[in-house]
Design goal:
The chain is mainly alpha-helical. The protein contains 6 helices and no strands.
């Protein structure tokens, strides 16, 4: 009798993490996103995208400081390219607004609007 071996791919883990996040099962979402990051290895763009998802789950789970640190890590990694990872800036601004740091959040959001001229529609829709 042959056993079925399932291949685990980072894309499947991200999909699973998104499902868990949607069901508000944030611990499982964090676990899935973390596993996906480990499997992506050196693909920096995909790792950064997954860090944003991980940060969102951490944030919803109540680990706001860890989430903010995650967003800042992505922002700093992309800093020479300026607004390279808009999702990180948006999540960071949301966290700042929730923490009543509206002035800093407004600066970040204005920076996104000024820098990202390729957006076809406003980011908040």
């Amino acid at each position: 009798m042959r056993s079925l071996k399932l291949e685990t791919s980072p894309v499947l883990l991200i999909r699973l993490g998104n499902i868990y996040h949607g069901k508000k099962e944030y611990d499982k979402a964090v676990e899935s996103f973390t596993a996906a990051i480990q499997l992506f290895g050196g693909d920096e763009a995909k790792v950064h995208d997954t860090y944003v998802l991980l940060g969102k789950s951490l944030y919803e789970k109540g680990e706001r400081d860890a989430a903010i640190n995650m967003f800042l890590t992505i922002i700093k990694a992309n800093e020479p390219k300026d607004i390279e990872h808009t999702a990180s800036y948006l999540q960071y601004a949301k966290a700042l607004i929730d923490g009543n740091q509206n002035s800093l959040a407004a600066q970040i959001l204005l920076r996104i609007l000024i820098q990202d001229s390729s957006m076809q529609k406003p980011f908040f829709f």
